[in-house]
Fold these 2 entries.
Entry 1:
Amino acid sequence: MDRKRLVLASSILAIVVSVPAIARPRPVTKAPRAEQAERLKQTLISAYGMEAATEPTYIGSEFCLACHTSYATWRDGLHATMHADLPDDAGSMNPANGIIFDANGNGVDDFKDGLDFNAISSPFDAYKPNAPILKYVAGEAYPYRVTIGTVTYKMLMKEGGFFQQRLITRIPVTDGAADGLSRSYYMLPFAYSPKLKKYATYNPDKWWDSTGAPKVVAGMTAAQVIGIGRSWTKACVGCHVTGYSVQKTANGDWAADAPPAALYNSGDRHYVDLDLDGNREFAGVGCESCHGPGSQHVLGGPNPSKILNPKNLPREQQVWLCAQCHTRGKSVPAGEHDYAYNESANHGYRIGDNVWDYYHDEAGLWPDGKTPSKGEQQYQAHEDSKHFTNGFHLVLCSECHDPHSGARGMPVTSVLSEGVQISTSFADNTLCLSCHATHGPFESLTKSEIADVATNRDKISRVVSAHTNHPYAPERMLGMSRCTTCHMPRTAKRDWEYDETSHTMEAISPQKTMLYQDKGGMPSSCAGSCHSIKANVYELGTDPTFKKWDEAWDKSNASMLLKYFGPGGIWWDSDVTKSGNTTAAAKEGRED
């Protein structure tokens, strides 16, 4: 196949993908959409040098959005924007939204400030005098640099956005590519939060030994460094790039490749040169991750039978589309990669397959064996939830999350429930009540009332507050009586704080905090969401550390909360030791 890329500037792109606003005479047998499809087909033929695809080929999301314009919001979402090329000019690390590394708040990028962590107190104190030193070399192709010990690294990509950003590089090796660098990409050992204006270490044990000395030194081979630094190629690319492939090179390094980008705006920094051939590939999750390769669909004119609509899959397979990435595990059989990959067959997850045929479960859980303590395992939690196991309705990820959304959390904004169209949001409970109204504690609420939440707020407030025993203010900062505050507390930690919600849908009792004190304790919904650093109703003060759950403060707080939620609780009388939910059950077909 001719891998030539066709890079189109935005003005040309608009011509290719837009239907003219002013109607012009056309043959009666050819609709405007058909003309548009023909232009896309010719663009694809020009880019790839083929008139018919012998096998399905990944072509990139811009071909999809050219016709399916209503899904263009995908471009603003985390799936599309998780990686970006770094600028080679005086711009910030993310020119699109102005985010820069600026921990001291002086408005100057920390790289241009020459921030030296050896000269300040920071999370890197244990690694002085080999803590990172940031620098910016004006006029160079890759001006952002980080020095650790005697080795200086060029920053090639960034990962993340407003909440956290990490940096990706390649390591200088003696047997590297033509530029003297490893083929494998690596995650630098720190992350930065533009929201918190803080740095944090990221897998520091892969970069420094127990004495604080750097593990990577000048003169190493590719095989020597592959087991040291955090390899993005081995650990991340499988979930972060659509249509990727990986292969082990003759010198023991790992190379990543991705489908060529044939249609994109030349100024879009989410397209990077992953395979080092001088051309760009899309570094993100695109349409074809869930719909399959799109070449035959476009070349067919378009032929709807040549593309996958996930809605036509069995319900569990629809959930597996998300599970291929939102699961914490190792590849099979040897655990070479931290993503869904069959090493024997040498390919990643294929739509329709059981995800556990590609993963060994490596869930990071709290001591109850059920609640996620680490990020990116929404599917494992969902698999243990009543949303998945109730026997009446397997709840799809797409019933709560819109994969085409550009909003954080990708919430579904409209639901048709029992013939009633309901505008939905997590913040005002309408998304949850669009299903749960007319059932259980919410039996007296109708779907029509949820559709007109402003008019019926008093009744909704009374019903929900009777269930929560709290005032009704879901839209406010504390989220009082918000469904997700109790049933989806933030239990999974990343670099700074708990920032991922649990999908077990369990309102976690403070009894679990006490029950597992010999294992460090664990958060409850009450303490994790409010009664720790937000609410001080018991006059205990606020949680001094928050990330620990076995301190005297945590035990005192849990004891107070148990009066309301736990064995003999005046609001919720429950005992987790009798409910059978202290250990997650293994599912059929799942390798644990």
Entry 2:
Amino acid sequence: MNLGLGVDTGGTYTDSVIINFDSGQVLAKAKALTTRQDLSIGIANSIDNLGKLYPHDIKLVSVSTTLATNSIVEGKGARACLLGIGYDEKTLYKYGFGTDFPIRDIRLVNGGHEISGREIMPLDIDDLKKAILETREIVDAYGVSAYGGVRNPKHEIIASKMIKDLTNLPVVCGHELTSRLNSIKRAITAAFNARLIPVIKELIDAIKKALEERNISAPLMVVKGDGHFVSDKVAMERPIETILSGPAASIMGVKFLSGTETGVVADMGGTTTDIAILRNGIPQINMDGASVGKWRTSVRAADIQTSGLGGDSHITIDKWNRITLNPQRVIPLSLAASEHAEIINELRELRDAEWRSNMLPPTDFFIRVKFANNGFLDENERMICSELNNGPLSARLLSKRLKLLHPALLNTGRLEEMGIISRIGLTPTDILHAEGTYRIWNTEAAEIAVKIYASHANIKKVDCISQVKKKVKEKLSTEILSKFLSEELDNSDFYNCKTCTLFIEKMMGRNLIPEIKFDISVRLPIIAIGAPVQAYFPQVAEILKAQLIIPEHAEVANAVGAITGNIIETVEILIEPVYTAAGIAGYTVHTPEEKTDFLRLNEAKSYAEKTALEIAKENAIRAGAGESLEIKIEAADQKATAAEGHDQKGKDLLLSSVVKAVAIGKPDIFGSM
């Protein structure tokens, strides 16, 4: 048999599947809790949960990961140096690099090119060498970005060669990551890429070790943010391209499992719900570059709307004793109690004590998940960690042990941000346990917690469950509707928009604007994946009057997508006319390696097509594709009509021409199948 092993590391679960490439069947699937302190542990556990493996039949392994995304959001990563060539320091810091930029070692060197590819200033070789020698012992990787580097990469190539000659450290240039203009985004992308290289390498090394221990010797691929594969080697060089890898894999999994080419993909996980639109079998791509946290990059990635709503979202109570949903991720009580039986006893005490407070959720607990150097902690934080050494404690009991007047005075924020302690609380996952529709962990803990919340809100237990589920359905409906509005209006500000909320509230039967009737129908099918979707999406589809598709194996669709994608490499080459007073004097071709001038447009296009084809093929094979590739070449001219007063008035003038080559293939193992 020819089998594939797909693995997806989500915020809560790490999923694994075995796919039979010959029949397209899912032969085995499994889940394990994601171990955030070391993702490789959760990956190994998930693979082991698949049952008996046939290592020699596994021809390919592919992984989608949240590691790059989380590292950027959490400000984590390796020591990196950004070498900026030709950048103005004031402009650089004004438009992206401030005191909160996580990369401190930024060295600026004279040089750079205009967007025409003409050299602005010669590269300062002596200053470049000095910057490398001063940093090579204190950093783990380099990113190089030169002003105008995508129009003429000469200075970036020289800097990269010098880094390789003087150090044994990895380096990637901005022109290797993007062909689009925007010097600030390109510098940010190169900087983060350098920061992530050792991080992704550590993960890939750990995965390889886990595979080796299980006698699996198949090639390893990694899913990029556009849903396509690259080899582990390329992923280690360009880890920035793996941001949004997990959500992108879900789109490809939906396509494979449902056979649907067009629809709204909603992936509801433990931490977030990711929404994307699939058209003609291809995910919509964010051409402005993927955003992670506050940073906008130049990375091509699927256009995914992420909402802080998942099975592990924190259910709280506001000052008016109303049930609310908080996007903060917490450990579900039912899960924590299945591993720590003392939580149930403490929940019983909280229930019997009828303790009430509007300043803190009534069933919150804390648990220590890792140790830290006490020198970084203040006295209160050290005491909290000491009390949690023997297991989880409720906020109420922890505050008593620390002799605080109220649990709200615990001040755990920094410990939670650093990942030293985690919060345990009531979640939608617990609600489903209490309802009886989802029972994989401790149901009693969930039931007690729901009773406590119901008591605080002065409602019945069944009403508490109903209210939470209704809020989840409304939130999901609002997110899907806002995704359509933001796409139509090309405005991401419509995410979580008040207009969408108003539509949904009106459609849910609330007496708002009685003179107006809203009637909305979503004409694309909603394809829902993730473990809890059966509990919510039938009603969501009913609200939006849409067809609902929940494919078989929906709970592991991300892992399916991780192993069923393609390798796709795209190369774009720009051709610009050189205008003089006498007209067009020639044409400049900007390739990823150089700029070349031609007298005639047909010569320029012929050279651009040949070069784009060769580079796309080379990149695809390097990314892990076999020799059997489909390569598409297309060209598009951008023209403008000459205005009044121009000697060419009324005629179309060529502004530029873009030649694009797209190489599509399967991993090399398919060549022998």
